[in-house]
Design a protein that fits this description.
heterodimer, A: 647 residues, alpha/beta, six-stranded antiparallel beta sheet, six-stranded mixed beta sheet, 16 strands, elongated, B: 114 residues, mainly alpha, two-stranded antiparallel sheet, globular
């Protein structure tokens, strides 16, 4: 079991000067109080840094080491930091020192730093390889999430209930890792390899003898084919694993950039619409320009019509006058020039009565139709048209489009300002690669199904051929067959053991988690227990036997804490639990229940809290004698904190 | 007898007005604006006249390819003996009238045609 004894930090986050925390080794809780910005998360990170050389920020993303140096010291040109951690593991004392020191006078990035690590066991310092091996055994990074966590990390445990979730898959693997399953799995894999090798030898042996040669060769061939399929399956499984990791990474990136992603989506839509509006505007403007080329005709339509009517009236009047003048002439001459006939006296008298002297005079003055006729002829050349309606419609559309483009440009400018702090190209490529990854995953999954099917078919052929060989085989052949069978049986024993162990573990984890959950929940009269699924997801079971589907954020937290405690109790690897502000989603009663239960969760618990979460008096009241030691993080300045033990 | 011209020109003032209207993008080219303004002046009953100090812009033959405008002027201004000079005058006067109206942002091509 891992037990923390002493932590010393220097230059790490707000801890400019060396600060020390001594952890009591008897079972119980150590509480470190500190307001925001005082360095609670830095202390959690200091332990993480000592073991793994990494520091995590929001969303469990690694933080640049350059940003960890104390800012006051950095302002004086003193960069770098040191963390010293003393601990016990399986009865032996260890001291782990990790120092991050600058390589250059003024470092600007992580490459400007070097890391020195020292691990002392008892009185002797370990060499690099032995040190890494020892650290991997004492505290594997894959399981650190069960020992060092904050409220944010606890939220991830909800993913265990979602079968397809890659985060859930990662956590499940980590749970199996802490529960010790990989040892059994490696044993099974090794035995499988051995029996397959024995099978190949048996096939070779058979092909050496004439009576079994045909069967042996066929078996060899089928075994080779199966091996090829298996290799391909392994390759595909690795590829799928890589793709799932990529998917998880992209999902995390997309989630953290969700806000920007939505702005970018709006920006892309606004740009596309602007482009379309500009295109439409160009085409409408073209149509308007074509219409305006003829618009002068529309303008003159009424004027020309009026002039034409006037000209027609003139022509008519002048024609009437011409007829009268011709009559007058005929009356005077007694001969009609139009029809070239002489007129009788009677006709001349009749015509005289129709032509007055005044009219005759007018005719004399206005005689001649050519003026009005030529005006009419000129006006008839005018191509009459009216496209004012079309112009109105086109111009209205153009105006609307102009307004829209102005609005769109404003919108785009606003969205660009919102995006100023992001990298739109990266966002776009992230979204594109997400789609690509999903597609590749589905292709690889189909390929895996095909390979598994092919392996199954080959296995059936191998079994068939083996049965035939058993009947016809030589003593040598039978010996190799017996060896192969023994190895296969041993591999099956391991397979059964894995299933049995997993099943037993699930039962034990479920029982412990249920017990811890009942201690922590405020709904003791309604909730009966927790039930565990294949992926170690826990479901709250109501006393009426039904699963509680609608779980509150607080309930999720309590379930996650119950799982943590259950894993601690059932894992071969045990250690301290260091929790950073884990009560953010819990009400007062849940918080009290969780604090009372903390000593049940692990032998050594370190709780980092701010007093608004839980005050000192309440903490002492809730934990009683199990509260072993209290520390206070005191503000010296905004960039400096000191650690004080509360006596 | 006064001789007619073969080209149509604009004064510096009306040239600037034409450029201003051209910028609005309602017309494909300057000649379309000029024809529109000529029609606008006729509709406004601008009397016969001439515009001095113009600088040539278009050939009359190109300006009135179909001969419609010349015929129209002959019908509407029968006393006119110099139709190209009249065209020029009507274009310049029309530009003044149209430029004055489009100075208001609420007036577009459709409003000019009302």
């Amino acid at each position: 079991m891992l037990q923390l004894k002493r932590l010393e930090v220097q230059g790490f986050g707000p801890f400019a000067d060396p600060q020390v925390i001594n952890f009591p080794t008897s079972p119980g809780v150590t509480v470190i109080y500190g307001e925001n910005m005082r360095g609670k998360t830095s202390l959690l990170n200091a332990i993480r840094y000592a073991f793994f050389g990494t520091v995590l920020g929001r969303g469990s993303r690694p933080r640049r080491l350059h940003t960890i140096s104390n800012r006051d010291l950095a302002a004086e040109g003193r960069f770098g930091f040191t963390v010293t951690l003393e601990f016990n593991y399986d009865g032996q004392e260890y001291e782990l020192v990790r120092e991050c020191r600058p390589r250059v006078a003024t470092p600007t990035c992580d490459q400007d730093y070097a890391q020195d690590v020292m691990l002392r066991r008892g009185v002797s310092a370990l060499g690099p390889q032995e040190r890494e091996r020892a650290l991997q055994m004492i505290f594997p990074s894959e399981v650190s999430r069960f020992f060092l966590f904050d409220g944010e990390l606890l939220q991830e445990y909800e993913e265990l209930l979602i079968n397809e979730s890659s985060t859930g898959r990662r956590i499940s693997e980590a749970i199996e890792r802490i529960l010790g399953l990989p040892i059994l799995k490696r044993g099974r894999a090794h035995l499988t390899q051995l029996f397959e090798e024995a099978d190949r030898q048996a096939a070779k042996e058979a092909s050496r003898h004439q009576e079994t040669q045909a069967l042996g060769t066929a078996l060899e061939q089928v075994t080779e084919q199966k091996e090829a399929h298996r290799k391909e399956l392994t390759r595909l499984q690795n590829q799928l694993e890589d793709l799932n990791d990529q998917k998880a990474e992209v999902e995390q990136r997309l989630q953290s950039q969700q806000k920007y992603a939505s702005i970018l989506e709006n920006l892309d839509a606004a740009r596309a619409r602007l482009e379309a509006a500009n295109g439409e505007m160009g085409s409408v403007r073209g149509e308007l320009q074509r219409a305006m080329a003829d618009a002068w005709r529309s303008l003159l339509r009424e004027s020309v019509r009026a002039a034409r009517e006037a000209a027609q009236r003139d022509v008519k009047g002048q024609l009437n006058a011409l007829v009268l003048s011709l009559r007058q002439e005929a009356i005077a001459d007694g001969h009609c020039k139009t029809c070239d006939q002489d007129l009788s006296q009677e006709v001349r008298q009749r015509l005289k009565t129709t032509v007055s002297a005044d009219v005759a005079k007018t005719v004399e003055e206005t005689f001649g139709v050519s003026g009005a006729m030529s005006r009419l002829a000129d006006l008839s050349k005018f191509q009459e048209m009216d496209n004012s309606g079309e112009v109105r419609q086109l111009f209205r559309r153009l105006r609307a489009l102009e307004m829209e483009t102005v609005t769109l440009k404003d919108t785009i400018a606003d969205l660009q300002a919102d995006l100023a702090e992001s990298n739109p190209e990266m966002l776009r490529s992230t979204k594109a690669s997400y789609g690509e990854i999903i597609e590749r995953i589905s292709i690889v999954k189909r390929a895996i199904e095909n390979e598994e099917k092919a392996i199954g078919e080959k296995d059936q052929s191998i079994q068939r051929l083996k049965r035939k060989l058993e009947a016809a085989g030589s003593p040598n052949l039978r010996a190799t067959q017996v060896r192969a069978k023994m190895l296969r049986d041993a591999a099956e024993v391991f397979s059964s053991a894995i299933e049995r162990y997993k099943s037993d573990l699930r039962v034990r984890v479920e029982a412990t988690a249920s017990r811890l959950f009942r201690l922590m929940t405020t709904e003791k009269q309604d909730y009966d227990c927790l039930t565990i699924n294949e992926g170690y997801g826990l479901t709250i079971r109501h006393r009426d036997g039904r699963a509680e589907d609608a779980r509150s954020a607080g309930a999720e937290h309590v379930v996650a804490l119950a799982l943590m405690g259950a894993l601690q109790h059932n894992a071969p690897l045990r250690g301290p639990i260091v929790m950073d502000s884990p009560f953010g989603r819990l009400d007062e009663e849940h918080t009290s229940n969780v604090i009372r239960t903390l000593p049940e969760m692990a032998e050594q618990v370190v709780l980092l809290v701010y007093e608004a979460e839980v005050g000192k008096a309440r903490m002492r009241d809730l934990l009683g004698s199990r509260l072993l030691r209290e520390y206070q993080l005191d503000r010296i300045s905004s960039r400096r904190t000191s650690v004080r033990e509360i006596k | 007898m006064e001789r007619d011209r073969e080209t149509i020109g604009l004064t510096p003032e009306t040239q600037a007005m034409l450029a201003n209207i051209e910028e609005r993008g309602w017309f494909m080219e300057g000649q379309d604006i000029a024809r529109f303004c000529l029609a606008y002046a006729i509709r406004a009953k601008v009397p016969e006249g001439t515009t001095p100090d113009t600088e040539t812009r278009w050939a009359a033959g190109n300006f009135d390819k179909t001969g419609e405008i010349r015929a129209l002027l002959a019908a509407l201004y029968p006393a006119c003996k110099t139709p190209v000079r009249l065209m020029e005058h009507l274009v310049n006067e029309g530009l003044r009238l149209v430029a004055a109206r489009v100075a208001s942002s609420s007036v577009g091509p459709a409003e000019l045609m009302d």
